[in-house]
Design a protein that fits this description.
- The chain has about 325 residues and is mainly beta.
- It has two domains: about 180 residues, Jelly Rolls; about 120 residues, Jelly Rolls, CATH 2.60.120.
- The chain is about 5% helix and about 35% strand.
- The chain contains two helices and 22 strands.
- The strands form four sheets. Strands 1, 2, 4, 7, 10, 12, 15, 18 and 21 form a nine-stranded antiparallel beta sheet that branches. Strands 3, 5, 6, 8, 9, 11 and 22 form a seven-stranded antiparallel beta sheet that branches.
- A hairpin with a 4-residue loop joins strand 8 and strand 9.
- The protein binds calcium ion (CA) (4 copies).
């Protein structure tokens, strides 16, 4: 017997392919298991260059209901985290909104210097080893969307969260979720998240490819990427509408590597897909840092939901001739 698909199911299908369910940070499309921030006394060779990580969340102007920023496994101990000696690390998570939370020039750099904690401090909490928050969620909020900073070029009200490894030498692994509910993860339609410098854990399984998606606006003519502590764990490639898989310079242990790449017209107003492809003899617990800037030295945002979708290489007519 023929069945008509109920409308609710169709709606679910519709949202499944769009922003609405893709607000975990890292996002599903990125295939990154965890964000990571080490304590201030850590050895940088474990994969975090500055013990601080900033993320921005965008709430569309049409959203009038309160929002929550949820943190998975905010503690440093038990499951998921990276231990050195005793667990002795404290991580401070702080949420900012208001004027200059993102538009202050120091807010969008990649080093925790100057007034990078700009804006109004809305909430903050310090986590160490904790049974209560191990493998569990902690919820910041509720926040009224208008407590964020309204910036049209980012698509709405912007909130900032900074994870700071204030002491200790262990690695805190965690994830975020921008939610409309305090007790569960429910995505905000049209919401997004981004960062200018991404510090994250890779999968141990070499068949798992992680991705990040820097956005290329129409004034970008070249990009310079910088990566730290990749541990020579395979290749990192750029895939875009015009690039089938350009290998970039990769770092070894405890070092930065940089490379510059030209951007062509077809790549404007879309995201690049930077792919982290591990080698067979895989490095375990590999943490890496990456940032990308344009020809003016301005850092480009990595959107967790790639703007314009995930770019696919499209050979030009010129390139396929003869
Ligand atoms: Ca934990
Ligand atoms: Ca320790
Ligand atoms: Ca953790
Ligand atoms: Ca590493």
């Amino acid at each position: 017997m023929k069945r008509i698909i109920p409308p609710l199911f169709l709606i679910a299908l519709f949202f499944h392919g769009h922003d609405a369910v893709t607000q975990p940070v890292p996002a599903v499309e990125e295939n990154i298991p965890f964000l990571v921030t080490f304590g201030a006394q850590s050895d940088k060779s474990w994969g975090d260059d500055d013990f601080s990580q900033t993320f921005f969340f965008v709430v569309p102007e049409e959203n009038l209901t309160p929002i929550y920023i949820r943190v998975f496994d905010p503690d440093v101990g038990g499951l998921h985290d990276e231990q050195k000696g005793e667990w002795n690390t404290k991580t401070k998570f702080s949420v900012y909104g208001g004027k200059e939370c993102i538009t202050h020039p120091d807010a969008t750099g990649t080093d925790p210097v100057g007034n990078y904690k700009s804006g109004n401090l809305l909430a903050s909490k310090i986590f160490g080893e904790s049974d209560k928050y191990d493998n569990e969620w902690y919820t910041f909020g509720p926040f009224n969307p208008t407590e964020g900073e309204l910036v049209h070029k980012y698509g709405g009200y912007v909130f900032k969260i900074i994870a700071e490894g204030i002491s200790g030498d262990d690695g805190n692994l965690y994830r975020y979720f921008l939610s409309s509910k305090s007790d569960r993860n429910e995505a905000i339609e049209g919401g997004n998240a981004f960062t200018y410098e991404y510090t994250f854990r890779l999968h141990d399984d070499p068949s798992q490819v992680s991705h990040i998606y820097p956005f290329i606006d129409d004034k970008v003519i070249s990009v310079k990427q910088s990566n730290f502590d990749w541990d020579d764990d395979g290749v990192i490639k750029i895939v875009s509408k015009a690039k089938p898989g350009l290998e970039i310079e990769v770092s070894g242990d405890n070092e930065w590597k940089h490379s510059e790449h030209k951007i062509v017209d077809r790549e404007h107003n879309s995201s690049l897909d930077i792919q982290f492809i591990k080698s067979r003899n895989t490095i375990r617990n590999n943490n890496v840092v990456i940032s990308v800037r344009n020809q003016y030295g301005e850092f480009l945002p990595f959107y967790t939901v790639p703007i314009g979708g995930i770019p696919k290489y499209q050979p030009s007519i010129h390139a396929v001739k003869r």
